[in-house]
Amino acid sequence: MEVLEPKKNQNEISGPLGLIFSRRSTGRLVEPAPDAQEVVDILRAGVSAPDHDSLKSTRYVVFTGEAKDRFGEFLAQRLTDRLAAKEATPTEGQLNKERTKLDRAPLVIAVGVAYAHETKIPEIEQFASAAASCENMLLAATALGYGSMWRTGEICYDPGVKEALGLASTDQIVGWIYIGSYRPDSQTQPVEDTPLEEFVTYFGD
Ligand SMILES: Cc1cc2nc3c(=O)[nH]c(=O)nc-3n(C[C@H](O)[C@H](O)[C@H](O)COP(=O)(O)O)c2cc1C
Questions:
Q1: Per-residue pLDDT tens for 92-107?
Q2: Is the pTM of this model over 0.90?
Q3: Domains in the chain, ordered, with CATH?
């Protein structure tokens, strides 16, 4: 069967698909952050993700300004506590990394899933919906001209961090969505043509 290949480099595709193909993770983002209306639009993109039975189990916590620094102090304390449980202590470098974690962009949106239990929808599908919300927000940020990045790490699995976000220890943090403007020297890596035949099986004539 003939294998369909993209006709041109994905970066060159314009129109609505160009938006999808132009999204790239950008590690360090700067002011200006999206304004209040843009933040609402990005969150609307999140909540418009597919959601089996419309359970609305995805949660969003928006961090800006000094709240990011305060939360950074909290994350440093959590690292200290996690290591203390293993009879270890963090280095100053490790603590600083936690303190400045949310400084990597002017806007950070933590996305969690507060599992609905009185439902036939399995937790994995609720997690999938929250993950779709994350991608929707990355694409919304891209559409508005901002850089973005989805990050995870140990802080997603720390019950104390979950609690601080209003989640139960049995809930999940799906990601931390960093959004901001590109630095003047920022270079976006071009998308490589993806060899689809490695991943795709076609059933059909
Ligand atoms: C669930 C998830 C978690 C991620 N966590 C991290 C992370 O903790 N640190 C990081 O550098 N990138 C993280 N990323 C971003 C990926 O590294 C990135 O998407 C990948 O390198 C491809 O680059 P691109 O987004 O520019 O296509 C995460 C992506 C996903 C989907």
A1: 999 999 999 999 999 9
A2: yes
A3: 26-64+104-183 (3.40.109.10)
